[in-house]
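Self-study notes.
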Amino acid sequence: MRAALDAARAAGRAGEVPVGAVVMCQGAIIAVAANAPRGLRDPTAHAEILAIRAAAQTLDRDRLENCDLWVTLEPCAMCAGAIAHARIARLYYGADDAKGGAVEHGPRFFAQPTCHHRPETFAGIGAGEASALLRAFFAARR
């Protein structure tokens, strides 16, 4: 989670919502990404999507079975869908997102009968630090 938090801080410094993501495979980090929708002018450039894309390129395959995704914020519905399609084995996330999250909040994507793959999910890892980054980012913009 430390690498994801570092990526989140970098996103915040770049003016992006401070969210970071890391994909690990067999205990090694294979991809690190930070939110970049504004910088890339791409509404799909969430940290999770960028990390999944980079990991797929690194492994030269579209399925990330046996890979873990660490992200500082509960994934949204788009990212939860990508996690399912990528066949991520385990999802670790920090801060809950009552407004936009889709794992424990909102649509509870992985609990839907139409979801074809459900990663093991572990919430609250580094939640205090991830939440503090988000609060500070949004407080500075109000």
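Second protein, same conventions, sequence then structure:
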Amino acid sequence: MNHSVVSEFVFLGLSQSREVRLLLLVLSAVLYVASVMGNTLIVFSVASDPHLHSPMYFLLAGLSFIDLGACSVTSPKMICDLFRKHKVISFGGCIAQIFFIHVVGGVEMVLLMAMAFDRYVAICRPLHYLTVMSPRVCIFFLAAAWGLGVVHSLFQLAFLINLPFCGPNVLDSFYCDLPQLLRLACTDTYRLQFMVTVNSGFICVGSFFVLLASYIFILLTVRKHSAGGSSKALSTLLAHITVVILFFGPALFVYTWPHSNSQVDKFLALFDAVLTPFLNPLIYTFRNKEMKAAIKRVCKQLMMHKRIS
């Protein structure tokens, strides 16, 4: 970065059409506000309601918290840029976006694996559930998720340390990420692009297949249970599987497809940044009676506080 003469990068944005930008502005703003409110409500409900003080909801609150970060890393600037003709981001801001994007992605990946393990223990080892999923183990999972997320992100940024940026500064996107930025360096980055693809792609593919295999195993185990328990467990598992597909789908395409279309990349990035954090609270709350009851209790308490004040 000491060799860089580029002080800012220019985004081409999502579309040149004014009508499309206006539509995206409305949809993105509504989904962003809804994502922030929904995930905040889940975190607050789990923290304040004693009925939700269990390992599953602890991990769910961790996922909702990281979803707050996921929708806030790129969405606010993208929404503001829809107003502007000249869309720019400073060099430092670009690096910060890359750092937080990969931190959030790494943390969410580990949390999804922790939630799969939680469901495995709950369904396949129910008598040992409270022993295996103790508060210490839950805190360990959360700390490991954040630690691995930060390490992964720093490892990704290591590819940029000595790269010179001496001229081209236009990104055909609405946010910064490594594959796009490496193409603008004033040197041959073919090997670095390959390493980034292998690193992020291998992690995404590996984690996805581990999760897929674990859920298949759990579903096979569920078939041996009673009809009532099987129905409840199946509903919970379907919610988890849906979230896994929503999270890994765009990431697998972006990081394992080296010459993908920029318009497709933009659509998937928009889906991942705005829609997925919005859908996660809906998926978990609509399929979970305890969570819906807790949210109703929290809303009633908030209404009572407002009336008193």
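Instructor comment on the second fold: The chain has a mean pLDDT of 83.
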